[in-house]
Design goal:
Elements lengths: L21 H14 L4 E5 L7 H18 L2 E5 L3 H7 L2 E6 L3 E7 L11 H23 L13
Parallel strand pairs: 1-2
Antiparallel strand pairs: 3-4
Helix pairs in contact: 3-4
């Protein structure tokens, strides 16, 4: 996605950036980030403002960048389906800023959420999120965290 035809951005190349929709702005930002050829590309909710068709196109482009250009990409997202479709591993975050679990995905990218590997990871992610929510509701500390005591 070095800004060429594969990024799907040629139709906005002459537009004023203030005219971009949120989704087009995200696509442009991702293309700009890849254009500087980083070894590591951190992203946060990179496809959140995209409709279904552009999101799928951009997911394919991001996977292509990983595979053809050897990019390491960290995708921070609240979208479990998206994480499972494009990731090699899904890390479930805990509060405050810890990692509750890391779950590897072994089937090739771009997978679907119906692949057996995907279903198992999705269930594991949902279980971790449920457990974290239950601990929080009961006022218990996260694993590895010290519970604060009232003064």
């Amino acid at each position: 996605m070095s800004g060429g035809p594969s990024s799907g951005l040629l139709d906005v190349s002459e537009a004023n950036p203030r005219q971009f929709s949120g989704g087009v702005g995200q696509c442009v930002a991702l293309a700009c980030a890849l254009a500087v050829d980083p070894a590591l590309l951190p992203t946060e909710e990179p496809f959140a403002a995209l409709d279904s068709s552009p999101r799928e196109r951009m997911q394919r482009e991001l996977v292509r960048a990983w595979q053809q250009e050897g990019k390491a990409v960290i995708v921070i997202t609240h979208d479990i389906d998206q994480a499972i479709i494009i990731a090699d591993r899904v890390a479930v975050m805990s509060r405050p800023g810890g990692i509750a679990a890391i779950m590897p995905l072994t089937s090739p990218r771009l997978r679907t959420t119906l692949d057996p590997d995907s279903v198992g990871v999705m269930q594991g992610v949902r279980r971790e999120l449920h457990d974290a929510s239950s601990r929080s509701a009961r006022g218990r500390a996260e694993p590895g965290q010290r519970q604060s005591r009232p003064a």
